[in-house]
Recover the amino acids of this structure.
């Protein structure tokens, strides 16, 4: 039985949705519809600090996000690929990129 749940307390306007895979204990991919996104829902990543708190989610940028809905993030168990759903072509489809983008977006102090 679950006796205690905790928010990641990311503080993103518009809320968070669709938490994706966690390839290790320090990474969480998710989506959000914020005032400062590219449109629809955008994909974000957040990293857990050594004190257990999560950093403010980082928008994955226009190379990943589009003016359409982009969501349902997933990193493969081997950490090589990042998959997501998008309506950028006018209908739902699955897209993927090299998961190296995650390391590129990771703040220097967490590397």
């Amino acid at each position: 039985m679950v006796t205690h749940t905790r928010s990641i307390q990311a503080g993103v306007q518009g809320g968070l949705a669709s938490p994706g895979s966690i390839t290790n204990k320090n990474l969480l991919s998710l989506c959000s519809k914020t005032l400062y996104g590219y449109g629809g829902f955008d994909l974000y990543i957040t990293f857990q600090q050594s004190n257990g708190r999560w950093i403010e989610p980082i928008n994955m940028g226009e190379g990943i996000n589009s003016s359409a809905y982009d969501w349902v993030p997933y990193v493969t168990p081997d950490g090589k690929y990042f998959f997501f759903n998008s309506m950028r072509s006018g209908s739902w489809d699955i897209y993927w990129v090299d998961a190296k983008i995650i390391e590129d977006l990771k703040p220097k102090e967490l590397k």
